[in-house]
Amino acid sequence: MISGVGIVILNKYIVTEDTFDYVVFLSFCHYFFTMVFFGILAKARYITPKQIPIDKRVTLAMASLGSIVFMNLSLASNSVGFYQLSKLACIPVIIVTEYVLYERIVPLSKLLTVTVIIFGVAVASVNDVTINLIGLILAAVAVCFTSMAQILCSHYQKYLECDSMQLLHSTCPLVTFGMLVFIPFFHNVQELALGDFSAPLLTHIFWSCVLALGVNITNFSILGKTSPLAYQILGHLKATIILILGVVIFNYQYNAKVIAGTVLALGGVVAYTELGRQKLEDN
């Protein structure tokens, strides 16, 4: 949670204060750092690499790449409000997809709490919603890729009997290579190469990579030990915390609508967590 909130705030600082608006290159740095870190762990035998079928590795890597690329395209093509709203669509897509693929049914009580969370986050964070056809298509593709990446990450850890570290170590090189390939499609490479990589900027990028490492490890671990739906709930809790910190740190404007949405979202998360606790006690 700390790394997830921290990386959003630091990346925002890099883009706004350091004026380094190369988000795909920054994502490449994140995955490259993670790949090197796991390579060192594997060489030192702190983790035991597992032979994961190449088709599974490629499928998960492609889903992860599609999520990153199309989320960036969606953000570039839509208003911020519609982009935020489209991310909320991952929850119903995950619920439907898991039912179709694995016949998993979410209890009605959890569906109600999830609905409250979605509504609360939408009320608190979504403004200025404008829709265009291209943006709508890109957002839909981004949601599908993101949902599938999370479902596959969770399913593969159980199906292939591997842990989160083994799966991340196995797929990270493919995602890193894919991000490198996509850089010229999003950035002016010559302009990027001639940019002013000052010591403060490099320091911020380094710490962003450290936080991204924590995020990657945490994300894979949560998806392996819980479910994509629980991961989404945690993600929206993080978004709510970021919204609160935005008011405190960046002096964002807030009103009754933001307060009401935040209270609803937090209340939904508490209710969802309590239902999960009760289920554990019953078992």
Structural descriptors:
single chain; 283 residues; mainly alpha; 12 helices; 82% helix; globular
Concise description?
Helices cover 82% and strands 0% of the residues. The chain has helices at 2-16, 23-43, 54-77, 80-88, 90-102, 108-125, 133-159, 164-186, 189-193, 199-225, 228-249, 256-282. The longest helix has 27 residues, at 133-159.
Structure write-up:
With 283 residues, this protein is mostly helical. The chain is 82% helix and 0% strand. The chain is built from twelve helices and no strands. The radius of gyration is 19 Å and the shape is globular. It starts with a helix and ends with a helix.
β-strand percent reads under 5%
Structural class: mainly alpha
Average pLDDT level: 85
Tally of DSSP β-strands: 0
**Unreliable segments (pLDDT under 50, ≥5 consecutive)?**
none
Q: What would you call the shape?
A: globular
Ordered list of secondary-structure elements with their pairings:
Blueprint: H1 2-16, H2 23-43, H3 54-77, H4 80-88, H5 90-102, H6 108-125, H7 133-159, H8 164-186, H9 189-193, H10 199-225, H11 228-249, H12 256-282
Helix pairs in contact: 1-10, 1-11, 2-8, 2-10, 3-7, 3-8, 4-6, 5-7, 5-11, 6-11, 6-12, 7-10, 8-10, 11-12
